[in-house]
From TrEMBL:
Claim: Transmembrane is one of the keywords in the record: yes
Amino acid composition bias (Acidic residues), ranges on this chain: 276-299
GO cellular component, one term: membrane
Basic and acidic residues bias (residue ranges): 261-275, 300-315
UniProt-annotated stretches for the region Disordered: 181-217, 261-315
Keyword Membrane found: yes
One Pfam family matching this protein: MRVI1
Protein's GO biological process: cGMP-mediated signaling
Keywords recorded for this protein, A-Z: Coiled coil, Cytoplasm, Membrane, Transmembrane, Transmembrane helix
Subcellular location: Cytoplasm; Membrane
Protein name: Protein MRVI1
Coiled-coil blocks: 22-49
Record membrane topology: Single-pass membrane protein
Length: 315
């Protein structure tokens, strides 16, 4: 982290330096070229003056040795001219290489900073894709259908409504159904209420016992309905009976309770929607409600007047 911060600081400094240099780059190039040209011109002038002074003293070189020295000096002056031109070009090359060396360090810092940015981008991109994948999985789980084919939103609503409903105790009408299943430890003839028929399955999955056939058996010996419920539940639902209930019966009872809660939840949501629509209609048309009240009052007044007229016409 410290290296990343240091590289970032150096990158900021270099970017500012390059930006400032770009403003004065043209003027500095022109100034450097002008100085180079002046230097070359000065060297050429000096060499020309030196050559002119030597040629002006040619009358003094009488001996052969002096003549050879004179020719040698002229040749050296020509070589100096060529070397001066090469020197300026070589100086430009050396300056360019030095500038390249300085720029290489700056480019290394910039490349390091770019690599750091690339790593952070790849890391953030990977985290973003992972979060998107998790969000898609959660949305598919929440919106997709469950194993029983019912959407999870409706299922959760029905389960919440079923939890809020009060528990129902076992009634006498459930006893014949258990006896029909031939539970172990109890025979159909040993039932305390043999005349009760089995539960009839309604289309919506609810058990509706026939009331007309069960009333005579329930009202025997002057016993009330609640007493029979208590006795039947105490005599029939023994621990052996509860242990003998098969898994199919439990699954059927759970399915019936779930369907009942789901249907009640749908009914309640429908009632809430109807109430909202009625409230919206009331809020949308307050003038119509006032007109209806006025018409009702006028009808009442007309009826009262008609009654008064009828009373006045009677002898």
């Amino acid at each position: 982290m410290d290296k990343e911060n240091a590289s970032e600081n150096v990158f900021v400094q270099l970017s500012l330096a390059f930006r400032n240099d770009s403003y004065t780059l043209e003027s500095r190039i022109n100034q450097a070229e002008r100085e180079r040209n002046l230097t070359e011109e000065n060297t050429e002038k000096e060499l020309e003056h030196f050559k002119a002074s030597i040629t002006s003293s040619a009358s003094l070189w009488h001996h052969c040795e002096h003549r050879e020295t004179y020719q040698k000096l002229l040749e050296d002056i020509a070589v100096l001219h060529r070397l001066a031109a090469r020197l300026s070009s070589r100086a430009e090359m050396v300056g360019a290489v030095r500038q390249e060396k300085r720029m290489s360090k700056a480019t290394e810092v910039m490349m390091q900073y770019v690599e750091n940015l690339k790593r952070t981008y790849e890391k953030d991109h990977a985290e973003l894709m992972e979060f998107k994948k998790l969000a898609n999985q959660n949305s598919s789980r929440s919106c997709g259908p469950s194993e029983d084919g019912v959407p999870r939103t409706a299922r959760s609503m029905s389960l919440s409504l079923g939890k809020n409903m009060p528990r129902r105790r076992v009634s006498v009408a459930v006893v014949p159904k258990f006896n029909i299943l031939n539970l172990p430890g109890q025979s159909p003839s040993s039932s305390p209420i043999p005349s009760l028929p089995a539960l009839s399955e309604s289309p919506n999955g609810k058990g509706n016992p026939p009331v007309t056939s069960a009333l005579p058996a329930l009202l025997e010996n002057g016993k009330t309905n609640g007493d029979l419920d208590c006795e039947a539940s105490a005599s029939v639902l023994t621990p052996s009976c509860l242990e003998g209930i098969s898994q199919e019966t439990k699954a059927r009872m759970e399915e019936e309770a779930y369907k009942k809660g789901y249907q009640e939840g749908l009914k309640k949501t429908k009632e809430l929607q109807d109430l909202k629509e009625e409230e919206e209609q009331k809020t949308e048309s307050p003038e119509e409600a006032e007109e209806a009240e006025e018409t009702e009052e006028e009808e009442k007044e007309q009826r009262s007047r008609a009654k008064v007229k009828e009373v006045g016409l009677k002898p």
